[in-house]
Design a protein that fits this description.
Rossmann fold; binds nicotinamide-adenine-dinucleotide; 2 domains; alpha/beta; 16 strands; eight-stranded parallel beta sheet; ornithine cyclodeaminase, domain 1; eight-stranded mixed beta sheet
């Protein structure tokens, strides 16, 4: 028996030809809504930590099926600490798309831009729904995900001042230079406390495992969003929050800032007031309140990556100049 398995090889440049930043944000929002509506099958991601074998990295396997797009796929994304020395980003991602009905490979898609942009879209969408005010923002972690976060936030939110905090002076300056001409003020900041105390929104998106934000620095009405892979804020920031929000409840108990609190038994699956997909799908309600402190952990799901990759693949079908195919059975 013979059959054809002609897959597309979609490069990072091709992805950016077919998908704009605004498209990426819209697709993340739509995908979260589908997730809230129960239209996505997505087991929790699993991590392969290679450090005990002497490899300085880890990667997550993030499979899912998206019914409204009728596509199956897996995002494989890792953090590689030695990449910086080679001039490569810390995060590296790829997305594999398959036909859900027969398993044939449809495309191998470079996931770098997709992953970075979907990560940045997350706090933009969360803040639109959860923040009481968006005038003053602190970003702790002026790396790549910090950059895409502010880029996407600038497309969706009206901001006046952004404090840029990072251990590295170079990272802060490079970050600020990328927003030359922005219609908000950027402050090169070495004092997390002063920045946080003045902020309506605080985002941590670092590679640190540390208390970067103290509870006493978080004012009433502030939205704190943690996105890094480890602990980034004092336990009391979570304990003293009036509202706790996440992108995915099950994953949040095993990852990032909430992992140690879940291990202490202080955070359980009943602790969450908002799961963003349910809110977007209209199955929960939340009205931003200037008196409430909101804590949100965004660990990231694989379905937005698969949805963006599939949209790029479909758009490549409409492009008569696209010519990057490979025959898996040949
Ligand atoms: N939640 C998600 O969906 C998601 C997606 C991708 C990556 N991540 C995570 O986001 C984090 C950042 O990734 P990235 O690609 O931007 O990495 P990056 O290396 O480009 O940037 C990280 C920045 O954090 C800074 N930093 C480290 N320790 C610090 C500290 N103690 N105080 C202040 N700044 C500090 C570094 O100087 C660097 O500029 C990682 O933990 C990564 O695993 C999360």
């Amino acid at each position: 028996m013979s059959f054809k398995e002609e897959a597309r090889l979609i490069t990072n440049a091709a992805v950016q030809k077919y998908i704009s930043v605004e498209d990426a944000i819209d697709i993340v929002e739509k995908t979260w809504t589908w997730f809230g509506n129960g239209e996505i099958i997505m087991p929790p991601k699993i991590t392969t930590d290679m450090s005990s074998a002497g490899v300085n990295g880890w990667f997550n396997s993030m499979p899912n099926y998206i019914k409204p797009l009728d596509i199956a796929g897996i995002k494989v994304v890792g953090g590689y600490s030695d990449n910086k020395k080679l001039g490569m980003p810390f995060i590296k991602a790829n997305v594999l798309l398959t036909d859900p009905h027969n398993g044939l490979l449809k495309a191998l898609v470079c996931g770098d831009w997709i992953s970075d942009m979907r990560t940045g879209a997350q706090p933009a969408i969360m803040a639109q729904r959860l923040a009481a005010k968006t005038d003053v923002v602190t970003i702790i972690g002026a790396g790549l995900q910090g950059y895409t976060s502010l880029l996407c936030m600038s497309k969706r939110l009206k901001m006046k001042k952004v404090y840029v905090c990072d251990l590295s002076e170079k990272a802060r300056l490079d970050f600020i230079s990328k927003f030359a001409g922005a219609d908000f003020e950027l402050v090169n900041c070495t004092d997390n406390e002063a920045a946080c105390k003045d902020s309506d929104i605080i985002i941590t998106v670092t590679t640190a495992d540390a208390d970067l934000v103290k509870a006493s620095w978080v004012k009433e009405g502030c939205l704190v969003m943690t996105m890094g892979s480890f602990k980034e804020v004092e336990f009391d920031v979570v304990r003293q929050a009036d509202v706790i929000a996440v992108d995915h409840i099950a994953q949040s108990l095993h990852r990032g800032n909430l992992k140690p609190l879940a291990e202490l038994g202080e955070i359980t699956e009943d602790s969450f007031d908002v799961e963003i997909g349910l809110l977007l799908a209209g199955k929960q309600t939340y009205v931003p309140d200037p008196k409430k402190r909101v804590y949100a952990q965004i660990v990231g799901m694989g379905c937005p990556d698969v949805a963006i990759a599939e949209t790029a693949r479909k758009r490549s079908e409409e492009d008569s100049t696209f010519n990057s195919f490979f025959d898996m059975q040949g």
